[in-house]
Structures are given as C-alpha cells and as structure tokens.
Amino acid sequence: MSPEEIAAFDREHIWHPYTAVPATVPPHVVTRTDGVRLTLADGRVLVDGMSSWWAAIHGYNHPRLNQALRDQLDSMAHVMFGGFTHEPAVRLARTLAGMTGLPKVFFADSGSVAVEVAIKMAMQCTGKGRLMTVRGGYHGDTFGAMAVCDPVNGMHHLFKDVLPQHVFASEPPAELSDAYLGELSDTVARHAHELAAIIVEPVVQNAGGMRFYHPAYLKHLRDLADEHGVLLIADEIATGFGRTGELFGCDHAGVRPDIMCLGKAMTGGYMTMAATLCTERVASAIGVLMHGPTYMANPLAAAVAQASLELLMERPWRDEVAAIGKGLADGLADARALPGVADVRVKGAIGVIETHDPVDVGRLSAVAMEHGVWLRPFGRLIYTMPPYVVDADDLHLITRAMVAAARAV
Questions:
Q1: Which of 2, 256, 361, 398 has the least CB density, counted as fewest CB within 10 Å?
Q2: Can you tell me where the transmembrane regions are (predicted)?
Q3: What is the DSSP string of 303-353?
C-alpha cells in the first residue's frame, strides 16, 4: 500500500487511542524504527521522546531483542498456558521474582489486565470489596482499573454511574506534609473494615498528571496497610524497570508491596505483556484464581521480555537514567520563565513542563516535529520519557522541542 492508501483507509476505518473516527488529528504513517528514531512515510526522521508510551527503553530494532524473537519463533510462537508450561515463561518468572522479591507470578497480556488481576487477588484474598487510592492516579482503561482512576479529572467520567465506588484520599503533595500523613491515617482507619487493598502508583502519578510525590507517603501507606490488615498494591507498570531512577518506584521508600503490577518496559516495547506478582501469603489465601488470558505467558513475549531484562541489568542503566535526568533539568530550565508555564519538574528519566491551560495536542506535536522530535502532550502537560539509550545530542533536541512547544502555548 502507498502511504496515501494507508492514511486514507486509516482515516475512515481505524480507531486510535482516545480519538474518534475519523481522528481530528490524522496519525502519521511510520515506515521504520531504529535506535531512538522514527522514520515517517514522507521521509522525515524524528527522535522519539516518548519511548512508545514509555516501553521502548532500549530503543528500536535492537539486535539482541530481535534475535531473542527469532530464536523463539523457530521453536514455538505460542501454546496455551492452561495445562502446559514452557522455558521462556519459567525463566521470566524466575527473573521477575528475583527482581521484585515477590515469588508468585501471574502473566497477563496488558497493564490494565494486570491491574484487574491485582484487584481480583486482593478481594479474593481478604473477602472485602472496596479499594482505597489517591486522587490524581491512573491505572488503566478496563472497568476495574477505571474505578480506581481519578474520579473527577480522569478520562472515565462517562462511566461513573456503572463503576464501583471506592475510597479516595486527596492528591499526594510533592513535599512532606504532616497534615497529609494524617489524612492518609484517618482515611485508612475509617474504612479499614471494608478495604481489600490500597492501590497506588509508587512515587510518580503518570497518565493522571505526571505528578511526583514524597516517598514517605508510600512508606506510610505500607505501615497503615500492615496496621489495619489491608493489602498494598503497587502499580509499577509505568514506574518499573528504572524509569524513576530506582529499579522500582517502591525502592525509593524501601517498601515491598503485597501485590505488584508490571508491564510496558518489561518487553522493551516489542510485544504486549504484563505481570501481576504477589507474596506467598496472598497466593495461599487465594487458592484458585479465576482468570486466564488466551495469550497468557506467550512464549515470544516471554522470550523478548527475558532478553530485555537481561540487557537492562547488564547496562549501566542507573547512570544512564541519572544522565538523562540532568540533561532534562538543564534543557528544560528556560521553560520556567515562560508565561504559559505553571511548573517544570524532572524525576529520573521523566521530564515535565506543566502549563496553566490545556494544550492543543495536534498543534504542539506539530511544533515538536518541526524541531525533529516526536512528543505526545496531553491535558496540561508537555512531557518526555525517552529511551535510556538516548545520547546527549538527541536529548538536547528533545528538550529544545519541549521548550519550543511551551513557547507556542
């Protein structure tokens, strides 16, 4: 198909994330990806500031990850996980258990499903039916996950009348606040009798607003969960595997959750796969867990995930993330003085320019593309989560494009 034929059919028939059909801003046709670059059908080459929604931490077309898929394809592309097991799943489960300290592993096929499984685990383990979380969070687009996203400023207000009503504390502040610690204590104590679990994104609230909060709140939630016999679920789908500067967001607070959700960067951005892990105590209390995705533990996805995690642990990922963080802080500093900018913040390999007013996604993406960079702003945020392999020159291109987009607000 020609690029024109692809675009024409797409426009009339295909839904894209969070858009109508046809999309108000037509998508760009991509023909190739290499390293940190995306090649478009019209010949433009863009530095990817998004890591394909935070997943492609090693960049694209990585020879080692490519080879892992080829090798696995020669022996087995897929087999049902009901009644069977296989080496790629076992190796990956062993790696994940070792990395997290959580010995029981349930493989899912997307981050949202991993959250659904975590909710089922918590409710089945405790026999209680409500969850507690904080405002400003995002956990996915399926129904259980939607119910613990921000109920006011989230994306799911159309479904509020059919979603379960859970317990929400206010948004966690960036700085340590005794008053907020007290609010968390009061909220958990008041609802402990009905709470199966507390679910949060550790340290960084991602798609709900790219907010960073003090690790002491996570530690306090762990203590409160233990005090009141409530489980703690850590949604590490976006924060896991080094993005925040620690291997997992929970590491900033030195805590281990009862249940953890993983996804996105786990496969290096190659295939859809997620996992929900839990403690021995939780698994023993559950017994039979009534969930089983058709493509659970897909061998291709498991093989490339194992290769991705091995590559991550062999790389100086901590130094890479720290260098990205410094480059983002330096490169975004000029945005602070712009009239449309409310805040500039950096944590690990996450850089955020927050504006006073909602942004025009298509217009600001076009501004970034004029500077040779792919960004996908949303809400009041111009942000980046680049691949860990981005070099200083390309990182400079990303920050320059972000500042230019902020000037265009």
A1: 2
A2: none
A3: HHHHHHHHHHHHTTHHHHHHHHHHHHHHHHGGGGGSTTEEEEEEETTEEEE
Given a contact cutoff of 8 angstroms between Cβ atoms, the answer to whether 168 and 151 are in contact is yes
Average pLDDT, the chain: 97
Bind-site residues for pyridoxal 5'-phosphate: 111-112, 235, 293-294
The angle formed by the CA atoms of residues 314, 235 and 172, to the nearest 5 degrees, is 115
Q: Which residues are annotated as a binding site?
A: 53, 111-112, 138, 235, 264, 292-294, 376
Give the model's pLDDT for residue 382. Answer: 98
Structure tokens at 227: 């005090």
Phi, psi of 167 (to 5 degrees): -105, 130
Q: 321-352: buried (b, 16+ CB within 10 Å) or exposed (e) per residue?
A: bebbbebbeebbeebeebebbebbbbbbbbbb
Tell me the C-alpha distance between 295 and 311, whole Å. 24
Half-sphere exposure of 406 (CA within 13 A, CB side): 29
Residues of the chain above pLDDT 90, percent: 95
User: Which of 239, 203, 240, 205 shows the shortest CA–CA distance to 218?
Assistant: 203
- Helix ranges (H only) for 47-171 are 51-54, 63-75, 87-100, 111-126, 143-146
What amino acid occupies position 51?
S
pTM greater than the 0.70 cutoff? yes
Mean pLDDT (whole number) for 134-156: 89
Binding residues for substrate, by number, are 53, 138, 264, 292, 376
pLDDT for res 30:
98
Burial class (CB in 10 A: 0-12, 13-18, 19+), 133: buried
User: Computed from CA positions of residues 22, 27, 31, 35, in that sequence, does the dihedral angle turn out positive or negative?
Assistant: negative
For residue 217, give the 3-state DSSP assignment.
helix
> What's the rounded mean pLDDT across residues 219-224?
98
- Rounded Cα–Cα distance for residues 250 and 239 (Å): 9
